[in-house]
Amino acid sequence: MTANNANNIVYPELSYKVIGASFRVFNELGYGLAEKAYQDALAKELKDNHIELRREVYTPIKYKGEKVSRYFSDFVIENKILLELKVVRKLGYTHVRQTLNYLRNSGLKLGILIYFTSDGVKYRRVLNSQAKSQ
After folding, report:
1. CA distances, 81 to each of 71, 77, 133 (Å)
2. Could you tell me if residue 106 is inside a domain?
């Protein structure tokens, strides 16, 4: 990575803290629990590290200006990062696409998709290029 690319990373310090917290949770709990257990543990880990979070954040899905549906994101971190957790065997494009759609509807710039897999923690940063700079 060049220095120029490093300067373009969205919320690098906060991202590092969030991803690190997910690794600590996995190291303590291991693989095989329900998604809710990882969510609860990660919420505690983030709070213990003084990272502001909101859980199950409601966002309406609009079509032609009218609400047609809704979703609840797992976390919004410091009103900057949308965080989605998955417990899966393999990483999936559908999860990345879903996270991108959530980002677009929320107006946030960065999403982090964290997968708790049998091979450990995997993650993807998802950027909403349509979001206004924050």
Report:
1. 16, 5, 13
2. yes
pTM (two decimals):
0.86
How many DSSP H helices and E strands does the chain contain? Answer: 4, 5
* Domain annotation covers residue 133: no
Residues 46-60: tens digit of each pLDDT: 999 999 999 998 888
Q: Establish if 60 belongs to a structural domain.
A: yes
Residue 49 belongs to what domain range?
Answer: 3-127
Q: How far apart are CA 64 and CA 120, in angstroms?
A: 41
Q: Is 23 among the domain residues?
A: yes
Helix (H, G, I), strand (E, B) or coil at 75: strand
* Residue 5's pLDDT band (cuts 50, 70, 90): low
Q: How many domains does the chain have?
A: 1
What tokens appear for 132 in the block? 């206004």
Would you put residue 30 in left (φ > 0), alpha (ψ -120 to 50) or beta? Answer: left
Helix segments in the chain, DSSP class H: 3-7, 12-29, 35-48, 93-106
Which residues are paired to 59 by β-bridges?
71
